[in-house]
Design goal:
alpha/beta; eight-stranded mixed β-sheet; 20 helices; 24 strands; about 20% strand; elongated; disordered C terminus
């Protein structure tokens, strides 16, 4: 058992189904061939009728028992062992690729097989062949698979794959049978969901939060969308529980009105305190402005940022801050903790915020928000770990025209930029790099800066490594015409006068990133444009993107055009690859796996 544990560790696997999903890459079949098949590996009974040496090579002529035909074989690198083995008169079962040359059967360097009628799976792993085979024989059996919650078809499929009686029952041509592939997709999804569920830990809450939100909602200058109301209702149910602290992720598309969901949650928490952590000063400031504007006047709001606080956070009902919050020793205890754009914080930072305001075993209710839409399949999977709400619609229709352009369109682009600036609108130009590089066939920020500064006034420049980034963005918001940047302006920042964005080298970016960038324009319903500048004329991916406006559909497209990655932590990382499951297409499979997980009582087999 101890030895097995070490082997599981080497394989980096944690569950019985992880082991069962290590699928043979091929099989060694020693079943006797019933017919002669040219161009394929045959296993035949044969007797040596002649052997001779010819320029260092051994030539052996066999008589095939079943067909009575002659077959000649040549052995290269010959040892005394070969001479002894293939003595005239000796009988063998030989295996090798059968060819025919001018009517004569040939088999180059056949193996003489001891054991016949056996199919041996071959596995490619870090372990020795004998080690992985013994693990599979020991653990992968019907009883264990049933205990994992699989049904008879799934159990029998996995047993057939690992212990086949014949290759016909496993393969169609050279691929696994399609119903086998369908089972493997399901088992892969089910195993992943099960592991996520195992990681979920629930704690009691500080207290139930039942503050009213009716007057707040009635006094808003606009009507909440149906989806906003739905998510707010889900959060009301979450927060009203004392036995279990809420753990919810709200994923909203660009401009879907997540801020109102945040403010409604603050109202529910009253008379107790709420804290919200945002990844940048700019986002924190923006949320602070919105909170002051829409929350009832008697609610005290404070802002905590490096070097400048607003309001008294010790007294405040709602504290908004950057990670500067983590350095406040005297942060009051909050019953509701929220994190905006949570994937931009490290796990450690998120945990320390929770730890700061936890009281012993009790935890605050926790809601995280993200403006990076995820595919529905991913949302289904994530919901094993925490509750997930999606806001897929926007409060008003955004009119953004997306077009792919190239060099010859540049004069027209310049004219368009001048027209927008004349109307006091702003323009954002995104470059792939800060400095020049021979790797990238586009100008960098540094190279093109001079051109724009010469032709236009109020040109601002920023990028990821720029220490002054937030100050530049704040000043641009008030005074700028053109902002030149790399993709740092991606998430959440509101630039109300921005109506035109140009993404240089757009084909180099993921569709999710392009969607976030496009989301910077048209925030206030102004007619806007997103130009995708590319040297490559044919770009199917960008064409598809131009025709798709909903972020959740884009997330699905993004999956289609690249591998689906692992799905923890709110962003798709290129971590775990699913081998059988297609996250873009197999929504129904994930749903079935999820339903199964909800309905079976699983006996856990621990491989740790």
């Amino acid at each position: 058992m101890e030895e097995a544990k070490q082997l599981f560790k080497k394989l980096k696997i944690h569950s019985l189904l992880d082991l069962a999903l290590i699928i043979p890459t091929s099989y060694n079949d020693t079943t006797l061939s019933t017919t002669l098949e040219l161009g394929k590996v045959n296993t035949l009974e044969a007797k040596v009728v002649d052997s001779s040496i010819y320029s260092g090579k051994l030539r052996v002529t066999f008589n095939l028992i079943q067909s009575g035909r002659r077959l000649s074989s040549t052995f290269f690198r010959v040892t005394p062992y070969h001479h002894k083995l293939f003595e005239v008169g000796s009988s063998h079962v030989i295996q090798g690729r059968l060819e025919e040359y001018k009517g004569y059967l040939q088999m180059s360097q056949p193996k003489s097989i001891k054991e016949i009628g056996k199919i041996t799976p071959k596995y490619k792993t870090v372990l020795k062949e004998s080690e992985i085979s013994s693990l599979i024989e020991c653990y992968v059996n019907e009883q264990n698979l049933y205990n994992e919650g699989l049904d008879s078809k799934e159990v029998s499929t996995l047993m057939h794959i690992h212990f086949p009686k014949s290759l016909e029952e496993v393969y169609e041509g050279t691929a696994f049978k399609s119903d086998f592939q369908a089972v493997l997709k399901f088992v892969e999804a089910y195993n992943h969901l099960k592991k996520l569920r195992g990681k979920r830990a629930d704690f009691p809450a500080h207290r139930a939060l039942t503050g009213g939100i009716e007057t707040f909602v009635e006094n808003l200058p606009f009507k909440l969308t149906y989806e906003q109301q739905e998510v707010i209702a889900q959060i009301q149910v979450d927060l009203a529980r004392e036995d279990k602290a809420a753990k919810r992720m709200v994923v909203g598309d660009v401009g879907s009105g997540k801020t109102m969901v945040i403010l409604a949650s603050v109202m529910m928490a009253l008379p107790h305190k709420s804290i919200l952590m945002a990844p940048t000063s700019l986002l924190a400031l923006q949320l602070y402005e919105e909170a002051c504007k829409h929350l009832p006047k008697h609610i005290k709001v404070a802002l905590v940022m490096q070097g400048r606080d607003q309001g008294d956070y010790a007294e405040a009902d709602f504290i908004i801050g950057t990670h500067a919050l983590l350095f406040k020793e005297d942060l009051p205890q909050a019953s509701l903790v929220m994190v905006d754009e949570q994937h931009r914080f490290g796990t450690k930072q998120r945990q320390s915020l929770e730890a700061l305001v936890s009281a012993g075993a009790k935890k605050p209710h926790f809601i995280q928000f993200s403006a990076t839409p995820i595919p529905r399949t991913q949302a289904m999977m994530e919901s094993e770990l925490l509750d997930v709400s999606l806001i897929t619609t926007t409060p008003f229709e955004r009119e953004v025209l997306t077009q792919t352009i190239s060099k010859q369109d540049f004069p027209n682009l310049l004219t368009h930029i001048k027209e927008e600036i004349a109307q006091e609108h702003q323009v954002l130009i995104i470059y792939p790099l800060v400095e020049e590089s021979s790797e990238v066939p586009y100008q960098s920020l540094a190279e093109s800066r001079g051109f724009w500064e010469e032709k236009f006034d109020a040109v601002y420049v920023t990028h990821g490594k720029d220490k002054q980034k937030e100050e530049v963005l704040m000043e641009f918001r008030e005074k700028g015409n053109i902002l030149l940047a790399t993709t740092v302006v991606e998430v959440g920042i509101s630039l109300p006068r921005l109506t035109l964005i140009v993404v240089v080298g757009a084909e180099r970016l993921g569709l999710a990133t392009l969607h976030q960038l496009r989301g910077r324009v048209g925030r206030n319903g102004l007619k806007s444009w997103c130009y995708l500048y590319s040297n490559s004329t044919e770009n199917f991916r960008l064409e598809q993107f131009s025709q798709t406006t909903n972020g959740f559909d884009i997330a699905k497209l993004d999956l289609k055009f690249r591998d689906s990655g692992d799905i923890l932590d709110g962003t798709i990382q290129s971590g775990q690859r699913f081998k059988w499951l297609d996250m873009a297409e197999d929504e129904e499979v994930v749903l079935r796996a999820k339903n199964r997980l909800g309905s079976v009582e699983i006996k856990k087999i621990d491989l740790k």
